[in-house]
Design goal:
The protein is an alpha+beta fold and 169 residues long. It has 2 domains: 35 residues; 128 residues, Sandwich (Jelly Rolls), CATH 2.60.120.1140. The radius of gyration is 25 Å and the shape is globular. The relative contact order is 0.18.
């Protein structure tokens, strides 16, 4: 009887240690990289964006998701077709600054907030304006996305702050 009691107690202790180990492992894996849990809702889907619908127009976009892609942007390209653009997707909202370094054509830049509404527009940014930078002013909201499109698009389509933008996957 003593052997059975000792065996049962030992077995229970081992089971408790195994369960406690699983609990600790599952908690530590959640806390190892908390920034993963804080990624905004759209980030995981951003790499699938194909079009940006703005002012009733579908703009086919190339994506700039990484810092390297964002630094390159449209620099060095010869031109940009009508109804095409580049969408810069950032991990968090901020007042991102843009320039016209190594650009060969003029563009409109549209800052889009996390709520998918336009927060700032720079119309007709010219290559000769480099090294000037553009970004939302103090009274504008922060942006999570920036859309670069052909110069004149904003004027032609009467874009304004507060207009809604839809991403199509």
């Amino acid at each position: 009887m003593k052997i059975r009691k000792g065996f049962i107690y030992s077995f229970i202790v081992v089971i408790l240690f195994v369960v406690a180990g699983f609990v600790l492992i599952s908690r530590s894996s959640v806390n190892v990289k908390p920034e993963i849990l804080e990624i905004p809702n759209n980030t995981s889907q951003a790499e699938n964006i194909k079009y940006v619908k703005i002012a009733g127009k579908n703009i086919k976009v190339d994506l700039a998701l990484t810092p390297s892609e964002q630094s390159q942007g449209l620099s060095g390209r010869a031109s940009l077709d009508e109804n095409t653009g580049m969408l810069f997707v950032f991990d968090r909202p901020d007042k991102y600054a843009f320039w016209m370094k190594d650009m060969n054509f003029s563009i409109d830049m549209i800052w889009i907030g996390e709520d998918n509404k336009i927060v700032f527009i720079k119309k007709n940014a010219l290559p000769k304006d480099y090294p000037e930078t553009y970004q939302p002013g103090m009274d504008n909201n922060t942006a999570r996305y920036v859309l670069e499109i052909t110069a004149g698009f904003s004027e032609k389509n009467n874009l304004k702050i507060g207009d809604e933008v839809v991403f199509t996957y």
